Amino acid sequence: MEDMIAALMYGSTSITLLTLYIGCTYVLLTSQNLGSPSYYAIASILAITDILQLLFNGVAATFFLLLPGLDHKLHLLNKWCGAICVAAWYAYGLTANLLAFNRAYLLIEAYYLADNTNDTNM
């Protein structure tokens, strides 16, 4: 009974977040003129990896919790879902660092522009 309650809570949370995240991703991808193209490329990769994690972790784990015998029959599918989640997790971590470096570059570039320096010899 506890597995059923945990599976339903896990599944409802995952499906709710997946629905909201697909909506946010649609808005992100259709309004690309609000920022730099590099930001939108990085943010779209982050959105895709989040959706992959929700699909292959939240939704798949819900089915494996609801149907306990399914894990023994589809053992390889369970391993594939885990492998996709691990790959998405690594991609998300690396891409988040890339986004941070991109932001740091833009801040440093804006700080060291010729207009912002106090060089009076020019």
Radius of gyration over C-alpha positions, nearest whole angstrom? 21 Å
Low-confidence stretches: none
- Number-wise, the strands total 0
User: Span between N and C termini?
Assistant: 77 Å
How many domains?
Answer: 1
Please tell me what the overall shape is. Answer: elongated
Beta-strand percentage range? under 5%
Oligomer: single chain
Helix tally equals 4
Mean pLDDT: 83
Helix content: over 70%
Instruction: Outline the biggest β-sheet.
Output: none
Helix and strand run: HHHH
Question: Structural class given helices, strands, pairing?
Answer: mainly alpha
Pfam family, one: 7TM_GPCR_Srt
Protein name: G-protein coupled receptors family 1 profile domain-containing protein
Keywords: Membrane, Transmembrane, Transmembrane helix
Transmembrane segments: 7-29, 41-68, 80-101
Q: Strands, helices and their partners?
A:
Elements: H1 2-30, H2 37-66, H3 70-73, H4 75-111
Summary of the model, kept short:
The chain has 122 residues and is an all-alpha fold. 82% of the residues lie in helices and 0% in strands. It has one domain.
Can you walk through the features of this model?
By secondary structure, the chain is mainly alpha-helical. It has one domain (2-116). The chain contains 4 helices and no strands.
List keywords for this structure.
122 residues; mainly alpha; 82% helix; 0% strand; elongated; 7TM_GPCR_serpentine_rcpt_Srt; transmembrane helix; transmembrane; G-protein coupled receptors family 1 profile domain-containing protein
